[in-house]
Amino acid sequence: MEIAYTLERPTRINARLTVRGLTVLLGPSGSGKTTLLKAIAGLLPARGHPYAGLPPERRPVGYMPQHYALFPHLTALENVAFPLAHLPKSQRQARALERLEQVGLAALAERYPHELSGGQQQRVALARALAREPELLLLDEPTSALDLPTREEVLTHLLQVVHTTGIPALVATHDPFLAQASHHLAVLVQGRIVQEGPAEEVYARPATLTVARLVGMTNLFPARVRSITPPWAWIDTPAGPLQVAALPWLTPGQTVYWGIRPEEVQVAPFASPTPNRLRGRLAHLTRQGLFIKARLDGAVELELLLPRRAADHLHLTPGTELEVTLEPRYIHLLPSDFSSGAPSSS
User: What's this model's pTM, rounded to 2 decimal places?
Assistant: First the structure.
């Protein structure tokens, strides 16, 4: 489904994107994600397609706001049946129960919102968005108030609903966990889509510095192209020369940005041979489940994400001298001209 919407208030939006399967609309706070969803739902005046000129009640969309907006005095079943006032009571209840079954909550149909967990409330809100059999789901920050296990549970149900019903979903979020699991990813910055494509492609090849930071590429540094001998090029950095892929748009003397994801920084003893070796001192080790997040202070400050077992085996502690390697295939380059908005040609 192709979507294009333009509006001036409350946020200036001029966005065109494709929705297929579970599509995540990723962007920083204030970028216009919620505004765009409300415009598509007909809750804000805007120009665009599809649904141009239709009032909200006639648009075939299921909209789920960020805080679910469940009626506290209605049961789960009654909340889901609420948008079906045009149907006879028996049909309303039957369809509402079907939708609760789709999200795995039929057994809790008579419970009130305060008797449900946060994840269960979210699934009731999803069932209500599905009640009118929409052709598009619009979900605003569906995992923002949930803990990690509940986020995983909700995501499982969401993917299942999209798969079984065939209804595409546009999900506004700044949650990288949800973005990584999507089928399609569109990045909204200052009201414009600056990059879209399969999630794995956007994560591997972000088009701008802003996109790179949004998808977790926290190691980003300026450099200058020294020489090019395809298939390789060399860039000068404060940490010394680095070997990188010779991309078509590179020219000697050009200023670029180079980046690498924390999980792709490899501790030297366990890495394959590469010329890109950097040495530094570890600082700020933090446990994150089965991983250790650390910073390597050297000529540049690199963020690392290491398997906990490997870190324990190496007896890594703050102050440990460490050598790491950066494989050329994992180093991503961006032209400095595109630091804030336009996509690169890489």
Answer: 0.86
Task: Determine the straight-line distance between the first and last CA of the chain, rounded to whole angstroms.
Answer: 26
The pLDDT assigned to 343 comes to: 40
CB 15 within 8 A of CB 193: yes
CB 121 within 8 Å of CB 70: yes
pLDDT (0 to 100) of residue 270: 54
CA–CA–CA angle 339, 32, 60 (5° rounding): 130
Domain 217-335, CATH among 1.10.260.40, 1.25.40.10, 3.40.630.10, 2.40.50.100: 2.40.50.100
- Maximum alpha-carbon separation in the chain: 74
Q: Where are the domains of the chain?
A: 2-208, 217-335
Name, in order, each residue with C-beta under 8 angstroms of 208's C-beta and a sequence gap of 6 or more: 189, 194, 195, 334, 338, 339, 340, 341, 342, 343, 344
In angstroms, rounded to a whole number, what is the distance separating the alpha carbons of residues 166 and 171? Answer: 15
**pLDDT tens digits, one per residue of 278-297:** 999 999 899 988 899 999 99
Contact of 297 with 219, CB cutoff 8 Å = no
